[in-house]
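Hey all, sorry for the wall of text incoming. These are the two entities for the joint prediction.
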Amino acid sequence: MIIAERKPMEEIKQLIAPYKKVLVAGCGTCVTVCWVGGEKEVAILASQLKLARSAEGNEIVTLEATVERQCEREMVAEIKDKVAEVEAVLSLACGSGVQTMAEMFEDKPVFPAVNTTFIGMPEKEGLWVEMCGACGDCFLDRTGGVCPIVRCAKGLLNGPCGGTRKGGKCEIDPEKDCAWVLIYRRLEKQGRLDLMRKYYAPKNFRAVKRPGKVQAVKA
Amino acid sequence: MSKEIVAFCCEHSAYPAADLAGKLRLDCPENLRVIRVPCAGRVDVIHILKAFERGATAVLVLGCEDGACRHITGNTRAKERAKYSEMLLKEVGMDNRTVDMLNLAPNEPHKFVRAANKITKRIKESEEAR
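and here's what came out:
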């Protein structure tokens, strides 16, 4: 899923400083799971903004709405009545959601309240780690399902680098597991260690032409 | 709700304690508003923020003693949420607002009154300091 982090409060306050009526819009998918942009976080941010502005003597009216997925036009269309009522929209969705919203309501300024950071998974409660770099040329078949592009600090295709610490930790970050140790152990369990002896030529990082576009083949 | 102290009271501990304080005619701050909740763990961050939005000066979350929560972890969650709410208030420059979480038993009306009076005193002192 897509992981995001909320922007600092000062920055959010600056973004909506000129407006008196704002819609705080959440997304019910990835950002809800990473505790940044779901219904709950929408309510908290709206309340914080009201408290901050009332302390400044500059009251603000906030509307709240959370759609299932802010990156789908049909779902964003569900809140068009609320958008019509406000001067600006503060979106707590990922960059894709913000852009969908901005495209659907071109006459309203749509501001991001979060920074979209990476594609990852929850490691434990409240901690998310990066798992995929969306490089467009998946390498996981050769590495036992551990991505060296994002999980190795150096992004090595032919690892380990030689700096692995005792206990299989990374030399850059001793808290982090060395991706190539994980790859070795995984391949060992699968009896596929011969893959470690193979040399992989530099990866084609142009596999995905930016901006990316995928057309499904219809049956 | 202007200038009120909102006390979210767990119905298994703090609420009976507040009730008992009333029966014993113990002196409580007159601006204390008691809200009965099924468990301190039911009190979410948004409830605390909404109380401040409506003009409360302080929020007390009162739950069962450690290890005595009817819902096992409600009181520990409440403590974390009270701490988190304080952080959120600080973020918007309202660090003078107090959010406290206290554990007490249903037979401790004096502890309830002490907590309410203590918070009232603290508010008064911070108002005088400003």
